[in-house]
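Minutes, project check-in

Agenda point 3 was the complex the collaborators sent over. CS summarized: two entities, 527 residues total, and the question is how they sit relative to each other. Sequences were read into the notes so everyone works from the same version.
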Amino acid sequence: MEKFDAIVVGAGPSGNAAAYTLAKAGLSVIQIERGEYPGSKNVQGAILYSDALERLIPEFRDEAPLERHIIEQRMWVLDDDSHIATNYRSDAFNKLPYNRYTILRAQFDKWFSEKVTQAGALVICETTVTDLIMDGNRVVGVRTDRENGDLFADVVVLADGVNSLLAKKPGYQPEHKAADVALAVKEILFLPQETVESRFNVKEGEGVVIEMIGKITQGMMGTGFLYTNNESITIGVGCMLSDFKESGVSPYLLLEKMKAHPSIKPLIQGGEMKEYTAHLIPEGGLKAMPQVYGDGWMIVGDSGMFVNAVHREGSNLAMTTGRLAAETIIGLRQAGKQMTRENLAQYRAKLDDSFVMKDLAKYKDMPGVFHANPQFFTTYPELVNNAARHMLTVDGVDKKTKEREILKSFTASRSLFGLMGDAFKMWRALR
Amino acid sequence: MNVTVEEKLFQNRYKVDHGRPHISIVNPDVSTHDCRTQPCTRICPAACYKAEGNGTVSLISDGCLECGTCRIICSEHSNVDWSYPRGGYGILFKFG
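CS then shared the predicted structure for the full assembly.
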């Protein structure tokens, strides 16, 4: 039986980053992907942050299928029929090297996987890994659904995504709690390129993202988003799974209602829907993170809860964790060391030293604060929209009286102590 | 709302593994008698689970988006047997 230096399970951003790094260093790598082609099972918004990929493939801008680089970010706070917004648009975002792009994951992952193959890894598609092969407490390989499909290696990198069934089998990871994952649904709507550009006031190659919070999530903790691609718009909404469960709101009806919001509808008018997707996002943060390495195994990407929900970052954490796991393996091999739990602890040290764990530590209290305080998603969006409407409606009432009335509406819904408490909670969670 | 989930799923590409569903309800009696809220019948984004008039829950996983929601929300009863489809089968995203 042939034995590899490393097996990588999954061909998403984390698995590809790991396999690419390992193969480039000359290790024998086999990567197993259950989809027809890499990307065919993968779902994301999707925003690609350049930095994490650039550290792997500096020339990616010349080769990768990218949609638009983002020059403007809009943040909307919506009530039932209006929104209050902040826009940040800068020509600095229009100068190379661009900081972030919209991408279509099925196409992007396919390209990334070609790079992995070129680097020398063996990529096997249409194959599902069904179990880990153990020797005592040590992972020594994987079982696949192919005939004679057992594979063996010194180390197995689990990049099998948010559901990570494999890490659950030996008990490396408990089942997710509904409060630790968000369910997002989205659609891709096709429009002529010129329509996208005129509607969002951008030129060829330039893009806009809109992140939304407020009554579109019907009281649930979550956000909506709208991203501009070349000839399409991606629109979606995601909320904590525990909130969906409690509210009984149907995700696709939530999305339909959001699409009908008077602030959103004109932007997507006439778009031809060509795909509807759903995906879980592991948003539990640091407190929900499982053990990410052990004897003969490591976890990277979504499988390890490596998502910064506050900043909508995930694929960059995935690529970074994949790269760091690979660099750990390469370092151990060069030192002639075994892939034991003790030695693989270097992976955790590398993670702690990177932005990945630093950011996750910074926001470790955010999920709890939002869970305990749904007013951030309901009361406040309504209050600020009402305040804006009130101040901007000219009706003979003097401005000082309007201000008093607005303050009264805030204290009536949340009390002065409630308002101060909320401000304190946000400050404490974000500092 | 006039749009049905079937119209949405119709746009997607699937390779259905006929006769080999990758998800099943472990014990139908638990769904019928012990689970009062049957959240899977409302929260599944592909509406694979249906609450039938007689109190049972039916499951047709052909339109499954492989998200994992049904498995995780079934925390009280752990009544969903969930695995990935065989290699190459199931949803095939064109855009992702």
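Noted in discussion: Chain A is about 35% helix and 25% strand.
Follow-up: revisit at the next meeting once the mutant set is ready.
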